[in-house]
Amino acid sequence: MRRIVIGISGASGSIYGYAALRALRAANGIETHLVLGDQASRTIELETEKAVEEFEALADVVYSNDDLAAAISSGSFVTDGMLVIPCSMKSAAAIAYSLNSNLLVRAADVCLKERRRLVLVVRETPLHLGHLRTLTQLAEIGAVILPPMPAMYAKPVTVDDIVAHTVGKALDQLGIPNDLFTRWRSP
Asked: What are the phi and psi torsion angles at 7 (to 5°)?
């Protein structure tokens, strides 16, 4: 059984987190551990027709963001990595500089210190120099920066197609096989 931590920050794009949880639920041999950032509930309410409980129901284990004693806050609790999807710039900055004031950031910091895969689906545009420096810091300490950018070669028709592409790319980074999107083939 592989353990994957999913963090959903309060950034726009909570549907990416929902799609990731659904994909991981459908995958064999994956145990998911979910932590919602402080503003995630509000963003879910504003952007989707789903309740927070629907997100939580897709996870095997759900933690409160203020529970810094949770299993995922310790490196001795072995996981196969973490996906923060979406990742706000506030969360990205806190992760980049180890400002472990909540569980989402602490769990990400644990992945970095234990040399486990950390994939951040960073949501912000345009980016100013401070954002770029934060993303550089994250890349230098081992995080994978994976902004949600659709592949037009796949000829997406729906928003779900675009979301599935990003989720599939994120799962690829965690070594989780998936067929969520059309992969490039030579013409």
From this structure: -110, 135
